[in-house]
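Researcher: Next sequence.
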Amino acid sequence: MRAQFVLSEIGVGLRRNLTMTFAVIVSVALSLALFGGALLMREQVSTMKDFWYDKVNVSIFLCNKNDASTSPKCAKGAVTAQQKQLIEADLKKMDVVDVVHHETAEEAYKHYRDQYGDTPIASTITPDQMQESFRVKLDDPEKYKVVATAFAGRDGVQSVQDQRNILENLFSLMNGMNIAALFVMALMLVIALMLIVNTVRVSAFSRRRETGIMRLVGASSFYIQMPFIMEAAFAGLLGGVVASTMLLVGRYFLIDHGLALSEKMQLVNFIGWDAVVTKLPLVIAIGLLMPAMAAFIALRKYLKV
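Model: Next structure:
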């Protein structure tokens, strides 16, 4: 009988405040969708870092004859065969180095033509203008400075470059977008909490006579508050379900179909469905518990029991 009464009171409360309940569902859904999206964005950035950092190299560019007049580091002329042998031998002795690959000027020119052969400037580049280099794969990409310190300024070396720097701007942009999403999520969350508190207040005021009678006949505070808390929890649960659906649909259309980013950006290792699915229980749990807690706190002020 008590459970039936609580359920009937929940239905009455939802019908009386249908518009505000709908607003709560929408605001909770949007805030939780942004929250889930921010979590997925963070995981995407982490996945991309693991994928790309494992593939980037440290490039040691060697002086050629054209660099002697344009680069102070190559003032002694082009790199000699002996210098190249010493550089390669020293690289292979280092514990942090995994693989060393020597790229000749002809190979560099071929790669350049493959990548930029259709551009007007490509026809002005000749093989002798390309630099020889050592492409060094490290056991730990974070130890780039060990190689840079050992070879920067060495005879025959024009520059030492860490390819991770090319990716840092992209990751910084994605992290910035993630922070912006969290900020908007926090704003939407505040709006949702304000709506929940206001909905509970209106609902408590509209049923003040019923709650007064229940108090007179000896009903406990928890029993009186339960319908209001359950109303907020139900609305939040619906918002969590809607947010979960938005995350699933978003990944489906953004990555697999619709925009089909997985086909258009094949070099990007996108997160899988498992990453999305594992976030859904957290999103639904927050959607259920957050409004319930907000309603419980609001009732202590607006419902004198």
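Model: Residues 164-206 form the longest helix (43 residues). Strands lie at 58-62, 97-103, 133-138, 157-162.
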